Amino acid sequence: MTEAFSSIDGFVLTPQGFVRGRLEQREGRIARIVGEPVAESEVRHGGAELPLILPGFIDLHVHGGGGRDTMEGGDAAVSIARLHARHGTTSLLATTMTAPLDEISAALAALAPACRERAPQAARVLGVHLEGPYINPGKLGAQPDFAKAASIEEIAALNAMAPIRLITLAPEMPGYLALIPQLREAGFQLQIGHTAGTYEDGVAALRQGAGGFTHLFNAMSGLHHREPGMVGAALAHAQYAEIIPDLLHVHPGAIRVALRAIPCLFCVTDSTAAAGMPDGDYKLGSHKVSKCMGGVRLADGTLAGSTLTMDQALRNLVLKLGLEIEDAARRCSTHAADYLGLDERGRLAEGAWADFVVMDRRELRLQRVVVEGEEIAVD
């Protein structure tokens, strides 16, 4: 690891808020932050041409990028982690697709080396988000039709291949409510997703220990005033949930509703191999998908992941939806870290990993990215 610099001046977002000062790092960790507290209004409109220094982005839902897909094996995970690092993501979960068990096993075996050791110029791969196959076959979305029943033994065997940090499941499927506390006891975080379940199913799953919701609004039963559905359960009861803020998956008005209802709503990209690539055809698990006009779709028009990167997610929150920079930054980093119990990431504080991004204050364009003290070449 080569440290690019020992200190940088700017408006630094600490856990207590912005300070105008200096961040110092040593051996991949934040050694010290010095400066005077400032209001967000000064950060946005002050005269000094100091940059923003924000926590590095954390993306818990990444299928691909740079033309590579997590399910393809080989060195795909490294290529994906490098693409997203160039867009400010300093940590991520490599996310699988629903597939036959032997294909999932092969994918996890290929992901294991990237989970053990961070490659140069790459984001840290924290582990795996197992998005399938334990979902409702009636709510596949863009997932291939290989949904199957879950068991604690099978999940433990998959976890032995590569560390599974997050599992998406549909709680209305037979036996899953009873399985949730067992999985939580084994150390897995559980998300509700790809579900046709009712409001009551969602509330019961949260009470059993499920922690959040996978790409809120997408591939789940919607909100009706007499049938609140899974969306209603999330809006009424969730502390955490993913949202894809590409402004295609979810209408800005629905994002505003979720922001008001869910305290720790956090951003994910649900990115595919098409992220960072020109229009054309790409792979998403066993599916062929097409990128056109910023979206990724199956042949029938179904949205199939995204081309979003986390730097654009932040810009969308601030420049399109009007969030304060501090709030948007925490939704692109800190809340996801807290959700996984990562107290040394997602925040700029003494002793934490030196994971941060440097951006201009007007257009929020990336100027520098640092992962564990290593400067990343920015696109």
UniProtKB/TrEMBL annotation:
NCBIfam families found in the cross-reference section: nagA
A GO term for molecular function: N-acetylglucosamine-6-phosphate deacetylase activity
Alphabetic keyword roster: Carbohydrate metabolism, Hydrolase, Metal-binding
Enzyme Commission code: 3.5.1.25
Domain Amidohydrolase-related: 53-373
Protein name: N-acetylglucosamine-6-phosphate deacetylase
Domain of life: Bacteria
Pfam families: Amidohydro_1 (PF01979)
Entry similarity comment: Belongs to the metallo-dependent hydrolases superfamily. NagA family.
Database matches in Gene3D superfamilies: Metal-dependent hydrolases, Urease, subunit C, domain 1
